[in-house]
């Protein structure tokens, strides 16, 4: 969802003051941020982060007011209020200098940059601002919290009062409310009769206004938390009512999420409790908890101290948490942890020394969540800014972290794609690989042929439904597209991005207009007329439909909402666009097949049909309204709608069995309302279903039924409009991401062999399951989830000097983002078996049996059940292991599946495998024996297996056995060997430990068929150039292995099997020349040359030389006796092997 990128940056401040910053706050438009010092207020520009203006308090006034504490912006960013320690509020007005700008960019002569474009200086130059104290207000009590509320400023003081102050006319609009007079209860239904606070000294410690809940989330000084809401438009004590959260008594801070109507309360025990408001009773309802677990952070999970700060991102998709003892942690809206700086490379140096965690005293998000500014608490309390000889600041206590995020956070219509698209402030990250390589459409036989090569033919112009598995998985690196600088300079920040189904084209939307890029031609396409770009503001996102870009925008010239369609291949100009006027502001847009769905600000959903027309040189697209659906009865606020999409999903899947043509029709609307997934499906109970003869463009569309709630705590929804009869379970399912609760799938249930379904059997079932990555895309037919993960690289070893200890490269690791993926099929199969739906599980498994990693799916399912039930200390009333074992026997690879998950066995099974020449299974049993027996016994069995593998030429297994025997000799087998990171089909599959195997498939698709090493620490050579180990090694185990290799080489040489000897030496890196020198008088000595020559010819399948008959019949020529030997040019290619050098 959100990922750290690179190193943080430290801001340099030209101020001469020795004070350190203590508070930072961005303005509502996130174009500026204010920095508070004890006696100074500074306004900075966000891009670039440069100082604009600073106000220094005079010493006399500073002693009267006291140090500055907090700042709050007015909603229009024209005023800022600053609270002081002595109970004063200073109101600063921020007039802008007309036509005055700072830090204007300078371009080279003849540069084509847009100096003459509209709003050029407003977009690319930092404005000149002033700070003037307009009013000083004395509240005669210590101020604990400031909160802006439209035209008012709400102030909480330590004497237990709430002050409502107007930004304009502050004195006349001042109101004070005593908190002791506000009734509190467990819900709003009984709040009028609820109890008051009842004692003196209670005041609000922290508060934040939630517009979508129309109230304030508050934290009191005694640790209790609550929610205060006005029962009418009048903000008086008689109209205020409060509700308690029963389970929190140690609250420290609060932050609200307006989009999801959530209130996050920080607690003294280090956890964050997230609540919402029950719309029926008005009570505070617990949603979920954010906390570190001892499993992930065993050293720090209970030592973080109280929660200090909580900040939601601008798009409300993630929340940043910091503690008193330091550290940052990023979570998704419903509790999936994304980043934490209390572990890994953030907490430890490259030499293993522990770092001091970053202590943060204040933090704020930048525009679109690309930046996070934090004040380093360590710097603020312990250090003073240093200055160099030029009087330039060398150290400043403000750090800027950079983030990249998923396109799903702002453009949820991307959920019907199979690509992962991340967007940064100036670049895009794609997982679709190289567009110059080909992809082929999916077909039922694709997996059975294992055709995953990334080298395919060029893209065709046809409409391909999906990309190949190898291209979507690819490698761990991204395809990075730099956004065109000309578009970015005048339209920063990037707000939306989208990619087409083929992964060939991407489009981005900034402040105005849009631009698109072709991965085939490596070129951007921008508006030729810059005025058209600057008068168009995209409001509802954008999506691709074939070669067309569909977007909802606002026309600044005509003050009109519009729906526009642009052709990718034509010039980017309004003359080539199809424009339709829309009645209300569009908030969300999505495309399903040939239908565009809009969600508008009046809480209505509008469906349009889109049609391609070939008129003239360039094809065009036309749209026609189909249907409007009003949702005002069900949606309290349009801002709460996270996503809206059209799907073919229905509750009655039996209809699709009788009428398959309906499987691809728009059957239902899925609407994510503040995390609550709502479905509206078409009502087919009326007579309209019989209307089949009407014109499709004029027929009356079926109405929608009343909405039904499918799931709670939903972050993302994935569905597809493709059809595959072999994999209907996966393609007709609905996939949900639920944050910390993992994923859910709404799976259809089909009767087997088209039999009549049981009346008691539901048509669909919701199955939850957990995965180890954050899902960003779903490969429906491949049963894979794609995602991304943050990784870090330490560079502190490059800075060894004492003066470099404070370098950011030493304090922080370099953060990178890697692609990853995970199998989920075994989770679904297990959930079906738990619910006694074995027949459905069998249908699903057989449909996926051709996947190359399907054996691994069976192993994972058996392993997880075995781990849970075999290690349980209490008896399990209804064990699942017998069911899973019986289920696996339905597939031909069940024996290998069982042995890979085995935990104990007997010696005769190992010997039986050796006698049956089943070396792979014997290797699996050897692992079990090694865990059960002392090293001497393991060495004995490993030697037997090693000799057998040498005789059969199983070179991969031989290399693993060499490593295994060396590990025994070095004492590594006292503990289990290192666990590999992947398991893939290979001849040495038995040597992969199953207990802790990762199920990531983020490596390239070729790796699905490649050999793998057991560990990386003692890897063996894989080719002729590889060297085995040092000859000078004194290790007895190496000598033991050498003896076995020499014995085998001597036997091959004595039997004159030189071809096998060459393969043996090449595969195992055997030092053949040196060994032959030692054996020249022993095994390399030839006793019978005739027999040796015959064996050489037989070994290399080379024919013996034959003298032609003509040479025998004509022994004389030109009167001289001459014996002719026929020329044999082939002998030049005969492999000459010298037995004795």
UniProtKB/TrEMBL annotation:
Subcellular location: Cytoplasm, Cytosol; Membrane
Source organism superkingdom: Eukaryota
Cellular component GO terms, alphabetical: cytosol; Golgi membrane; Ric1-Rgp1 guanyl-nucleotide exchange factor complex
Broad class of the protein's primary localization: cytoplasm
Family: Belongs to the RIC1 family.
PANTHER family assigned: GUANINE NUCLEOTIDE EXCHANGE FACTOR SUBUNIT RIC1, RAB6A-GEF COMPLEX PARTNER PROTEIN 1
Protein name according to UniProt: Guanine nucleotide exchange factor subunit RIC1
Species, as recorded: Cyanoderma ruficeps (rufous-capped babbler)
Taxon lineage: Eukaryota, Metazoa, Chordata, Craniata, Vertebrata
